[in-house]
DNA sequence: CAGGATCCTGTATGATACTG
DNA sequence: CAGTATCATACAGGATCCTG
């Protein structure tokens, strides 16, 4: 990140062209591989339901490390709540905070767009492929 | 996300996380550094207005190479239209396709969320920092 | 069970130089 | 003007082993 070394000379409102702009930073977050999937899974679960291993099961393909890193990032951002039951062995429950729940709304819009239009994007890609290879 | 499809295009490698998931692929796209910014700039411009150099000016910090790569990706996906005027020197105009315009809607929702809630995320981060360093 | 520590790799990004 | 080609690099992501 941090494309430029100096601050934007104009405006400096939360503008997309400012390296510090909120949208840039939000996209950096949800653009990481597992973040949006975690948000979705947590949004669809009840707060007392999902522990670490269960989350890993529901997020097919995620490694232990990346699940940990993802959840730490979300927790740091105040989007996810981490609740530890001090038992042996320990149980750690993850859930969305109210803030995290509000993030799921625009993400859901994005998911919906993806499901509705990805086939069209695939067609466009195939057209481009034909042009290139043919 | 959409764990339904279990088809493997290559016939093997069953442990790959669903490569067909539309949301995953969409996020891979808009998660790249300059894509969403390009979409926003193009969404706010008129089709006959924006050429390569102008686009680079409006997207502060983008390199020639990455702007080219970004636009090629968007064009391949059918989200951006590339129109060449065969003059000397050439003029190349970029604009969103109708499909690209529809993508700007959920992206705008994301931008709005970012502007409304990024300050709260910053506060959450500072709280975590205090806990860690203190 | 729920992670932390380490090592390694692919790839997105960037700087620079060149071209039709 | 609108790109390509080449080289270099930082970092996200993953595999594996270790621990309270």
UniProtKB/TrEMBL annotation, chains A, B:
Transmembrane segments: none annotated. Coiled coil: none annotated. Residues 21-122 form the HTH hxlR-type domain. It comes from the Bacteria. Keywords: DNA-binding, Transcription, Transcription regulation. Pfam families: HxlR (PF01638). InterPro entries: HTH_HxlR (IPR002577), WH-like_DNA-bd_sf (IPR036388), WH_DNA-bd_sf (IPR036390). Gene3D superfamilies: Winged helix-like DNA-binding domain superfamily/Winged helix DNA-binding domain. The keyword Secreted does not apply. Signal peptide: none annotated. SUPFAM superfamilies: Winged helix' DNA-binding domain. This is Helix-turn-helix transcriptional regulator.
């Amino acid at each position: 990140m941090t494309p430029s070394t100096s601050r934007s000379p104009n405006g400096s409102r939360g503008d997309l062209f400012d390296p510090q702009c909120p949208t840039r930073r939000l996209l950096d977050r949800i653009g990481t591989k597992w973040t949006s999937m975690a948000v979705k899974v947590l949004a669809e679960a009840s707060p007392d339901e999902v522990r670490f291993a269960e989350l890993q099961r529901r997020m097919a393909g995620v490694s232990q490390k990346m699940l940990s890193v993802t959840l730490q990032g979300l927790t740091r951002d105040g989007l996810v709540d981490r609740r530890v039951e001090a038992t042996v062995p320990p149980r750690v429950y993850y859930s969305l905070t109210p803030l995290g729940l509000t993030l799921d709304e625009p993400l859901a819009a994005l998911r919906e767009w993806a499901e509705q239009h990805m086939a069209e994007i695939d067609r466009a890609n195939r057209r481009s492929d034909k042009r290139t290879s043919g």
